[in-house]
Amino acid sequence: MSKKIVIIGAGTGGTLTANRLRRMYDRDAAEIVVIDSDDDHLYQPGLLFVPFDLAQPKDIVRSRSEQLNDGIEFRLAEVDRVEFEDNTVYLADGSSIGYDVLVVASGVSLLTDETEGLTGPGWGEKAFDFYTLDGAVALRDALSKFDSGRLVVNTIDMPIKCPVAPLEFCFLADWYFQERGIRSEVEITYVTPLDAAFTKPVAAEHLAGMFEEKEISLEAEFATGRVDAEAGRLISWDEREIPFDLLAAIPLHGGSEFVARSPGLGDDLGFVPTDPNTLQSEAAPNVFAIGDATNLPTSKAGSATHFEGDTLTDNIGRFLDGEKLEGSYDGHVNCFIETGFHKALLIDFNYEVEPLPGRYPSKAGPLPLLRESRLNHLAKLAFQPFYWHALLPGRDMPGVGAQMSMAGKQPVTSEKGDNG
Questions:
Q1: What pLDDT is stored for residue 239 in this prediction?
Q2: Alpha carbon of residue 90 to chain centroid
Q3: Beta strands in 111-161 (DSSP E)
Q4: Which of 94, 99, 122, 388 is deepest in the core (most CB within 10 A)?
């Protein structure tokens, strides 16, 4: 008897999961339905480059439905809620879809209204985001006219999608203003609620050193309570103030709205409590989650979603076969960190192991870890065609496994780290 698998969200996680499952099951064995509220699939890493005119909007958006393999039904609809008692997804238009297995791959929402004053007077004039396409385009136009003053990049709260993106923005801004010959006229400040530039200590120490080298100020442990964009001020909950002439804000993130309307599905922030190793949701045995929608204690990054896909699809198969799930996901993430001047860093880590120096993907690998190189930059650029033609279709990356490998990594024994 055919099983019905419903996937909420046609972003990275939902698309690659649907395509992998379609290869696992023929149409007689499983019906696969993917639901999303629009048909615009955004290559999210490209948003970082738009403000600096290094990527064009038309090049990073494609049709969601066209990324799905034949035999997958795409439903353009808003989800109202999920009811676990009757295994049903209820849509905003009053219709419903039953399921045998549900996958929540709905990503995150930007909760701009949760920060007082953020989208008030001055928003779109002196204050912007670059986590949406419209915001990135507007910020591009503002940066092109910005000749002097203080640029502040503010992560309002964690967790956020791609936690290294704000750091990359700072590094690219340093390069951008140097290319324009006005770097000495611009002060760049990164403001974060964390006690360091990044959540992992070894990487944080390395990144802090780069901030110092590039004369980028770091304001740590600053919890933004409100924004006065007209006056150009960030105000913390303890009433400290940081002035700005131009603000690139990374708003508070939360889960999709339907999660809150689905009793038992989400936590207080709207993220789906999920087993960190099996990717089974705590809501019900036949519900799974992937990517940014989860509460997993790892970075909300595309690479994490890619690696999660192996475990997720295998465990859906095990569940449908009545077998025990395997806890094979180890929190593996790798991220290229663009540092400007056609260079980038690469970090690779999981739940237990923080970023270490060395080579990737093995001791003889071409990519240095925790060190700037042009090859890392080229690899970051090459990821975009790989994303469309391999990752989304659900193909594996040659030589790179879902579980993190220690091959090529060097344990940190001194502050000197890796010079090779």
A1: 95
A2: 27
A3: 127-128, 149-155
A4: 99
